[in-house]
Amino acid sequence: MHLPAVPLAMSGLLLGRQGFDFDASCSSIASQVAAISNTTVLVTQAVPAGTTLTFPEADPSCGANTQLISTDICRVSLNVATSDSSGIRMETWLPRNWTGRFLSTGNGGLGGCIQFNDMAYTSSLGFATVGANNGHDGTSGAPFANAPEVLADFAFRSIHTNVVVGKQITEMFYGTPHTKSYYLGCSTGGRQGLKSVQDFPDDFDGVVAGAPAADFNALLAWSGNFFSITGPPSSPSFIPVPTWLTTIHQNILAQCDTIDGVQDNVIEDPTLCNYDPSQLLNVFQPFTDSEGSLLYPSPAPGSESLGIALYGGSPFAFTSDWFRFVVFNSSFNPTTLTLADYELAIELNPFNIATFKGNISAFQSRNGKLLTYHGEADGLISPFNSARYYQHVSDTMNLPPSSLDDFYRFFRISGMSHCANGDGAWEIGQGSGMSLDPDANILTAMVRWVEEGVAPDTILGTKFVNDTPSAGVAFSRRHCRFPLSNTFDGTGDSTQPDSWSCQ
């Protein structure tokens, strides 16, 4: 795909100290990094553009263990001890075309997988980029069993540690400190971004947090509770997966797709969809405690295609692991989970992993900027929870949206599934291969906001034909900052963004 020229917001090449020699610095960086407390250098190597790196140490559950590198980088891989019984493995990728900017990537799920694709994307844009394994390897929660220090790494310490060490390595390598610091992550990575804003406000100047797994304990309880509603495949209440994907999803679209004025398989604003089938009421209801108080919002109508991971007839894997290895023990049977168990997990809240603090004034005071986004068709983390957190910050800080706009903006991405994909205009620059125009790229929009003071009012999303850029654009849509909603003008071409407005 041909990309436009790099915008002003991504220019500003720096070459570090006077007479800086990229190759020589990469050759000598190992001895410098070894002087950082609690570190063990594993690999340092100069990686030319076009190289496909292989990571044999990556756990098979993390998926592909290779990554194509599109720009010259110096790679530094190391272990950092976080206690006598825990540590993180982290990567630092230092690009030849450094812009002076630093960026940390996040993780996903129960989080022991470095996001090499995000590291490749951001280092190609000139960010000195770091990523870590969150204190354990693989997607299982088993490493948390009887290991509070490992759990502490997952809850908060890994990201902060890799930022502190990564900034030291960056200055050692280039001979000058970074100018601005950024964060990019989704799902668990979104929660990690919010955790940084809440507890480590000096770590980043700008945080992009997608589909954040905020109110983490309640989220896992909500995810697990669907099994008690639907039951196993042998249960009379069980609804087969094909029924969710066809009959139910199509019925919801039939009721709610055209509320926005266009029939395009995209529910622009699920809050306006009052889908009310009696046999599914328990699934589409908010999750409440024994006294009827809200624990977690309902799923969004239109999220069924991905929601089958929760409704498929077995306990959700992450919920099962959390209760087996954190709340109870490995012999616990997750099919027996009750509301009392969920309430216990929420009360335990190890290391305040909930990540739901409403007072982020310290981040505001240092002029930090926060952008969150959430797919409205996300079936794994309800998009209504991101709106709930936004409202929680507004209420806690006693600030209306017009005041929050100065440092915190939230974008609802219609038709986007979990972090990416879906029937909507979901390509917003959260990954590689898209325009770098700040009007259409949420990362470069953040850079422009931090460095030029221009805050995004909308983010232009793109839907490609068959999700294949070479096949052309199916439609584009400007996604509105919350609490505004997209409205079709009723007369124009619905595939064109100018036919919609934020109201």
UniProtKB/TrEMBL annotation:
SUPFAM superfamilies the record matches: alpha/beta-Hydrolases
Assigned keywords, A-Z: Calcium, Carbohydrate metabolism, Disulfide bond, Hydrolase, Metal-binding, Polysaccharide degradation, Serine esterase, Signal, Xylan degradation
Reaction catalysed by this enzyme: feruloyl-polysaccharide + H2O = ferulate + polysaccharide
Domain of life: Eukaryota
InterPro entries linked to this entry: AB_hydrolase_fold (IPR029058), Tannase/feruloyl_esterase (IPR011118)
GO biological process: xylan catabolic process
EC number: 3.1.1.-
Molecular-function GO terms, alphabetical: feruloyl esterase activity; metal ion binding
Pfam families with a match to the protein in the record: Tannase
PANTHER family to which the protein is assigned, alphabetical: FERULOYL ESTERASE B-RELATED
Family: Belongs to the tannase family.
Protein name, UniProt field: Carboxylic ester hydrolase
